[in-house]
Every structure is written in C-alpha cells, then in structure tokens.
Design a protein that fits this description.
With about 450 residues, chain A is α/β, with parallel strands linked by helices. Chain A has 18 helices and nine strands. In chain A, strands 1, 2, 3, 4, 5, 6, 7, 8 and 9 form a nine-stranded mixed beta sheet that branches. In chain B, strands 1-2 form a two-stranded antiparallel ribbon. The chains are: A alpha/beta (about 450), B mainly alpha (about 325).
Chain lengths: ~450, ~325
C-alpha cells in the first residue's frame, strides 16, 4: 500500500498523540515515596495542617472542638478543616496529588488500599520515635487499622453494633427482656408485629430485609460466627456454615411477613438518618444499629422509651452472646502531606490523647478506641451506652477483613442476598459457592500480576 | 479560483506565493489552535489514555501495570454484573428512546392544534425538563411510593392494584420510562419548533387531494421533520447508553438508603439489579472499587458501541432523512 503524504501526516499525528498520552500517563503516576520523619520530635510545631473528615452538622461540631483544643496547645499551628469529605473524594484528591495532611475515614473497608498503595503514610516510624503505646488500643481495633503488617492509620473512635428495642412495645406484648437467641428474636418479632384489617403491616417486630437501614450481612455475621475468608485468603462464604444459617434464619422471617408486604412496608418508612427513622417513630419494635443511634434518638425522639442489648446470636452458639460487629473511624497522614510533623501531632492527639478521645466520644456518642479513654471517669455512660462498651470489649466481637480491593467482596454478597430474600435462589449452597467464585475472581482482578 | 490554480501548481510556486500560503496556513492554524487544544486535551488525550489504561491494572493510587487483555477477558468471562448492566442499558435504549420520541412528538402535535392557551400548555409540558435531575427523581419516586405515594392512594381508592413501582424489579425500568416521559419537555420543544416549520401549503394541497390524517402525518409531517427525528434518535441513544443519575437516585431512594457512608452501602441497581446500568457499573468498578484499569476497558467497549450505533444511524439517515443529498 502506498502511503500518501496526508496518510503519513495522520499516522505521525496519531503516533505523537499516543506517545504524548503514554508520557502523560507515566507522569501522572504518583510518586509513592515519602520522606522519613526526623529522628526526634520537633520541640515546637508551626505551619498549616489541612484536615479532611467526613462528619457534618452536629458531629462535625464535636470534631471541631477537639481540633480547637489541639490548636490551643499548639498556637503555632493553624488547622484548616474540610468537613463532609467522604472516602471517594479524599482518594481522588490524594491520587491527583492534592496535599492533604490529615485524613479521617468513616470505614475500615479501604484501609487495605490506603496502606498497600501508600496513599496514607506508614506511621510506624512516628509511633516508634514518640514511644506511642500501641497496646492501649484493643486488639480488634489494632487489626482493622493496619494492613499486611503496615500501620498506616490510627483509630479515632469506633462504631459497635447491638440491638435497640422499644420497651413500651415489648411490655405491651408481654416481654420483659430482649431476645438472646435468633429463635427468641424470631418469636418475639412475630408477636410484636401488628397488621391492619387488610393484612398490611403497621408495626414490624423486626425487619429482616437485607439493605434495610443497618441490615448488612457484615453486621449480622458475628452473631453466627461467620467468617469471610479462609487461611489462604479465599472466600469462605460457601464453606462456613454460619452464612447458610444466617440466610436461612433471615429468609424464614421474611417469609413470615411476605416479601411483597415487607417491601411495601419498608418503602413507606422514613429515611434512616432522619427524624422519620422507623425505630424512632415506633414503627419497628427492634432493630440492629450502632451506638451512635442513641445520640440521634436524644436529639430527634427524646421521649422514646427504649433500651439496648447485645444482638441475639445463633442458638447453637450461645457463647457468642455479648459480642457484635465492630468497625470504626480511622485517621492517617496523606501521601502528599506538606506538614507531616504537625499532621502526625494532630493524628496522635486525636487518636490517643485521653481527654480529646473522651470529649469527642461524649459529643458524638461513639465508642472510644483506647483503654485509658474507655476507663476514664469523664466518659458519659448510661445503661444503653454501656451495652456497646461491653460489646466493644468482648473478645469475640469481630470486624470485616481488610483487603486491597476494599469492600467489593461485601458488595458481591450484598447482590446475592437481594436475590435470596426475594426467593430467586433455589439452591442456597450452590448460590453461596458461586459467591465464593465471584469474590475470588474479583480479588484476583485487584492484585498486581 | 486563484487558490485552485495555486493548488494545482504547487511544485512550481515562486517564493512569494509560498510565503503567502505559509502565512495563510499559520493564520488558519492560529484560529484553530483553541479548538485543537480543546480537542487534544479533553478528547484525544483522555481517549488514548483510557485505551492504554484498559490494558493495565490500575487503582488510581499506584502506577498502572501492563496486563494485556486480562481486563477484557474478565469482562467476557468472569464479571457477574456486566451482563445485567448491559441488558438493562439495552432495554432502556430500545424502550426509553422510542418511547420518549413518540410521546414527545404526540405532545408537540397536540400543542400545535391548540386554539388557545398554547403558551400555558407549552410551559407546563416543558417545565419538568428544567427540574434538576436529582430533585425530579426524588419527587417522582415519592409520588410512586408503594405505601405512602399519592399514585397508589388514588389507585387504591379506585379499587385498582397498587404496584410496588420502583421497588419491583419487573416495574422499576418501566417506572424509569415514566420518569423519562414526564421530563419529555426537551424533546417536545424541538419537535414543536419543527412541526411549526412544516409548510402549511403542503397540508392544504393534501386536503384537496382528500388524504386522511395518517397519510398527512406519514407523507408530509414525517418527511419534513425527519432531520429533527434523527437528531433526537442519535442523542437519545447516546444518552441512554450513558444513563446514570436517574437510575442511581431512584434506586437509592427506593431502597431507603439515601445516605452513603457510615452504615450500610446503597444497594447497587436496587431492586435486584434491575436498575443497574452499564455506566453505573463502570463508575462503581472505577471509583468505588478502584479497578480503574477494568473500568477503562468497560469505557472502551462502551465507546466502540456508541460509535458503532451512531455510525449505523447516520448511515441509515441517508435513506430515512428527507433532504439529505442523494436520498429520496
């Protein structure tokens, strides 16, 4: 084929554009190396620290008070706080090379990615240099704040899950204590459910639908002792009998209500994080939720007569009672931090200073993540909050594993549970095995060749 | 003519003419530079970069690693959701696009026949398309709430079945079509302008020949507005292939998960994946799970399909659009 001058020019242009693209791609790959900290901590901190966190409104005010205390102790430092910044925004900002000194994330799901990619700096050298006692952090929290032996975050309060129940509704149905096993939960849920003349649900004893409020498989898993991965790091959902038990319990209760009736009922309920929350409105007698709910109830439904308890457990595993799902907020230093020493000082203050941790915990009703803060007499405790402190301290409490692919494995199971509860999975065992395959394939997609 | 003459004698140009031509080229290039820069930076570079990234493993935070065709292999054999997402998107292309075009044309035709109140009706039908998409979807989903929405309350009062609408996987996509019909004002307004542009004398002549309404529409209206119909078809198909905001917001609100973060994540494509579109899945894989390399492969496939559909439509336009050179 004869190449005409025009064609040659086009080819050259295309090649140039491709070369340019590859060049820019290469340039765009962020440098993952960061400078090591100095051998001794600076005697005086100066400069500006940018601090991105996800809290808003009432909870953001609680964080701001802690930041103000830090600034009062370090008058040479100015902290620029950007609230309402979720993980998506912070990751994209860090990837784009935006200098963020301190980052606070609401979930442990992305810790694997933060640590493995260096998006959040390794804090080990700072911790060793300053002699921070890492053992003041409970072991479950120590686990979810590191990945593959690399500690790129510190905990800053945790969320712990348990059962909320409406005392007035339970008393009216003749119950004086919350359920402790799944059988008790199911029986009580049925008796607490009120229907109208047409069979429409007016009050649900317990809404079992996955996807409703905090009804995630991850939050129920500790009650069945269900594990996500085996020792080889492969998905364990099809093998661990806890998952099949959970699914069976959940589907039985869904079928009691009727899937369509339950869907219609939940569609008419208020949004989870609003004053129309169904539990706060007395439309749901029992539900699973985190300790933070008590602060919402205090603000939105102060007259609600409720109590809390550990979430019921599998009848065959009574030893699990008292445990629950634990997750938390994690704080670290961004890869492009401009003022890493001051950033570390802020991270250390917010995560380990007992007065600061207790102050924020009291303000937003989260569980403190250091032993001195948990034992502090300044920690505001009532019986409802104590439930979550006990769940947090329980050795059998667990969290979701961190992976380099984030929470994709939880989403894969979530997709399956939707089909399952709608009655579209004829063979549960085969379905869970398929979930294993899908999760393993997806994990492989995220691993470097 | 001078230019033509010069073009044909390019090998024998004297230095003065060459200089003038070079200056002309530079002038043209100077005027084109802003466009060239825009296209290069915002189209050519992202396109080529996406193509390159589709052959890599890339998580946004660490450098991309070349993996050959493995992303495409995963898409073809292992991705559990991509087929669902592609099916839903194709469904919207096949149902939503013609549905909106037909409804928009019907509304525009009705409006042209109004003897009075033309401005009022035109405004009423056009207003929904001005509502921000998120706000519009929120309002629409609340209207169709199976338990508390006014639509089901009216149906119930009439003794009719009360569907689950956005909460039913069989009705969620048709509900999105209803949403699309509600916001048809953007199409209606261009169809209306086109219909008002059809020469009246053609209708008068047809009346004298005794043609019926269907024949008037088929042989006079359609040929005259065919370029606008083709424009609506092409832009509609491209928009449907990229369908995102409405589906995400509708699924999020209907599932009761209007917030993200902190608690349970929103269920993608609720209910049961029935509203999961290709663009959503691409975004989810790229910016939620951070499989940017794989998301790039999804984007490349979407680009190729969009390009192919557009080329087919444009080719068909030669035979369907009246007034295009070489057609009937």
């Amino acid at each position: 084929m004869r190449i005409t001058p025009g064609r040659r020019r086009s080819t050259a242009l295309l090649a140039a554009a491709a070369g340019f693209s590859l060049l820019v791609s290469a340039c765009g790959s962020s440098d993952t190396t960061v400078a090591a900290p100095s051998s001794s901590a600076p005697t005086k901190l100066t400069g500006t620290v940018t601090f991105w966190h996800f809290f808003t409104d009432r909870e953001a005010d609680g964080i701001q008070k802690a930041v103000d205390k830090f600034v009062a102790l370090n008058p040479g430092v100015k902290v620029e706080v950007k609230k309402g910044q979720d993980d998506d925004k912070t990751i994209q900002a860090i990837a784009a090379g935006q200098p963020i000194d301190v980052v606070l994330s609401y979930s442990t799901d992305q810790i694997g990615k933060f640590c493995s990619t260096g998006a959040w700096q390794d804090l080990s050298a700072y911790i060793a240099r300053d002699g921070v006692d890492i053992n003041q952090i409970p072991s479950v929290v120590r686990d979810y704040t590191q990945f593959d032996g690399k500690r790129c975050s510190m905990p800053m309060l945790s969320d712990t899950y348990g059962l909320y129940y409406n005392k007035k509704l339970l008393a009216a149905a003749g119950f004086s204590a919350p359920p402790k096993t799944m059988t008790e939960l199911t029986d009580m849920a049925k008796k607490l459910t009120a229907l109208d003349g047409k069979g429409t649900i007016q009050v649900a004893g317990f809404v079992p639908s996955f996807g409703f409020y905090e009804n995630a498989p991850a939050h129920f898993a500790p009650s069945f002792g269900a594990t996500w991965f085996n020792a080889e790091g492969k998905s364990n959902i099809g093998t661990d009998p806890g998952w099949a038990k959970m699914m069976t319990w959940q589907k039985d209760l869904v079928d009691f209500y009727g899937y369509d009736k339950l869907t219609r009922f939940t569609a008419g309920l208020g949004q989870e994080f609003s004053a129309d929350n169904a539990f706060e409105k007395g439309k749901v007698a029992m539900m699973i939720d985190g300790e933070y709910r008590s602060a919402f109830i205090k603000a939105e439904a102060p007259s609600l007569d409720y109590a809390t308890a550990p979430f019921p457990v599998d009848d065959a595993k009574p030893e699990l009672y008292g445990s629950g799902y634990v997750t938390g907020n994690v704080i670290g230093i961004g890869r492009g931090a401009q003022n890493p020493e001051a950033a570390w000082a802020l991270v250390k203050f917010l995560s380990t200073d007992t007065d600061s941790v207790v102050g924020v915990a009291n303000a937003i009703k989260n569980v403190p993540t250091t032993t001195p803060a948990l034992e502090s007499p300044r920690l505001d405790k009532d019986a409802n909050y104590q439930t979550f402190l006990d769940v947090f301290a329980n050795a059998k409490s667990s969290t979701t594993p961190t992976t380099a692919s984030g929470k994709a494995y939880q989403d894969t199971l979530g997709t399956f549970t939707e089909q399952w509860q709608a009655g579209k999975v004829p063979d549960l065992a085969a379905g869970l095995t398929t979930v294993d395959t899908q999760i393993n394939d997806q994990l492989a997609l995220g691993q470097a060749p | 003519m001078t230019l033509v003459a010069e073009t044909h004698s390019v090998g024998t140009l004297n230095p003065a003419v060459r200089g003038r031509r070079r200056r002309q080229r530079l002038t043209v290039l100077a005027f084109l530079t802003p466009w060239l820069l825009g296209v290069t930076i915002f189209f050519v570079y992202p396109l080529l970069d996406t193509l390159y990234l589709s052959f890599t493993r890339y998580d946004l935070l660490s450098p991309p690693k070349w993996v050959g065709f493995s992303n495409y292999a995963f898409m073809a054999t292992k991705d559990p959701q991509v087929r669902t997402a592609a099916y839903n998107t194709l469904w919207l292309v096949v149902i939503l696009v013609p549905g909106r075009m037909l409804f928009g044309l019907a509304v525009a035709s009705l409006v042209t026949r109004l003897k009075s109140g033309l401005g009022v009706f035109r405004t009423v039908f056009y207003l929904p398309s001005l509502v921000p998409p998120v706000a519009g979807v929120l309002a629409f989903v609340f209207l169709f709430n199976p338990a508390t929405g006014p639509v089901n309350q009216v149906l119930g009062a009439l003794g009719l079945p009360e569907p689950l609408w956005f909460n039913d996987p069989a009705l969620s996509k048709p509900s999105l079509v209803l949403l699309g019909l509600w916001g048809v004002g953007d199409l209606m307004i261009i169809f209306l302008a086109s219909l008002l542009d059809v020469p009246r004398e053609q209708y008068e002549a047809a009346s004298l020949d005794g043609v019926n309404s269907w024949q008037r529409f088929r042989y006079i209206t359609v040929p005259n507005i065919s370029p606008v119909l083709m424009f609506a078809a092409i832009t509609g198909v491209i928009a449907a292939l990229q369908y995102f905001t409405e589906a995400v917001v509708a699924a999020s609100v209907a599932s009761g998960q209007a917030t993200t973060g902190g608690g349970n994540s929103s269920l993608l494509g609720y209910p049961e994946g029935s509203t999961l579109t290709y663009a959503q899945w691409l975004y989810n894989m790229g910016f939620k799970n951070y499989y940017l390399g794989y998301a790039s492969a999804l984007a490349v496939v979407m680009f190729v399909i969009s390009l192919a559909v557009t080329l087919v439509l444009l080719r068909r336009a030669r035979s369907l659009v009246y007034g295009v050179e070489g057609t009937r």
